Amino acid sequence: MTERIKMLGICASPFKGGNTEIFLRESLQAAERLGFVDTDIVIAADLEIRDCDQDNWCMFKSYPGRYCSKNDGMTEIYPKVIEADAILFASPVYLARVCAKMAAILDRLRAFSFGRHRGVMKNKVGGALAVAWHRHGGIETTLLSILNSMYVLEMIPVGVHHAGAYFGAGAVSSLGGSGQGVGADHHLILQDEWGLKGGRDLAWRVAEVARMMKVGRKAMVKDGVEPHILSIAKMARDIYAARGEVLPQEVIEAKGWAKYPPIEPGEPSKAAPTRQI
């Protein structure tokens, strides 16, 4: 039986139904055609998402079902992220970087990389998508800003060499990336076939790696082998143990395999000293 993959797309554009959303949907539809991928999409234009103010509530007070002190659109996004095996992040290019909402979403995902839910993002496979008005108007720098966040979150970002999507997939929303429009046609990304191909190929590559990761983890657990060498927090372990992708916490403790014990609130890491910035 082929292992099914859950792929989440997050569109951060403030424009609903715009070129960035079209690019993401085209990429997700390509993944669905593989036959083993189930997709979901978040349209951030529908949501109010506040900035992270680093109150550190997520580190010391979060619990299953409540991951951040702020009650906003992220409460809809967090459960979808937990369920996803793979994530496509799509942003328009703003001044050669991600837009404000994408920055806020990525910042708020720190709730899954620190403290009580540390490890939720670990080894999720990710892909970056960016849409610019000009062909050389900041696509790669925007993709790199998303990739940098994925590295910090301990995700596994992928690219596609033959499609030129080395750091992710980029496309343009003007005619040929020239900065010129065509009448009332506001969806010129549909004419950027090479860009669309990059998005489709990237989605396939993300699905490919995510399936290998998921099958591999389950096979290891079936053989009694813990996939993680570096520890994850108990609440993250509980999530993935329920899916058969890590060993349950009680097994880890009984066998004494946790070289670096999961960090609980108020307990400094034994692997490294705590530091303040």
Describe the overall structure.
35% of the residues lie in helices and 13% in strands. It has a single domain (5-217), classed as 3-Layer(aba) Sandwich (Rossmann fold). α1 (19-32) crosses α6 (193-222). It is an alpha/beta fold and 277 residues long. Strands 1, 2, 3, 4, 5 and 6 form a six-stranded parallel β-sheet that branches.
Please write out the topology.
Elements: E1 5-11, H1 19-32, E2 37-43, H2 57-60, H3 74-83, E3 86-92, H4 100-108, E4 125-132, H5 139-152, E5 156-157, E6 169-172, H6 193-222, H7 234-241, H8 249-255
Parallel strand pairs: 1-2, 1-3, 3-4, 4-5, 4-6
Helix pairs in contact: 1-6
Keywords:
alpha/beta, Rossmann fold, 6 strands, 13% strand, disordered C terminus
Q: Which bin fits the share of residues in helices?
A: 25-40%
Cα radius of gyration in angstroms: 19 Å
Number of DSSP-assigned strands:
6
- Kindly identify the CATH topology: Rossmann fold
CA-based shape: globular
What's the CATH C level? Answer: Alpha Beta
Determine the strand fraction and express it as a percent band: 5-15%
Q: Main beta sheet: strand number and arrangement? A: 6 strands, parallel
Low-confidence stretches: 271-277
CATH homologous superfamily assignment: Flavodoxin domain
CATH architecture designation? 3-Layer(aba) Sandwich
Taken in chain order, the helices and strands follow as EHEHHEHEHEEHHH
Q: How far apart, in Å, are the first and last alpha carbons? A: 49 Å
The overall pLDDT, averaged over residues, is 90
What structural class is derived from the secondary structure elements? alpha/beta
What is the count of distinct domains? 1
Give the helix tally.
8
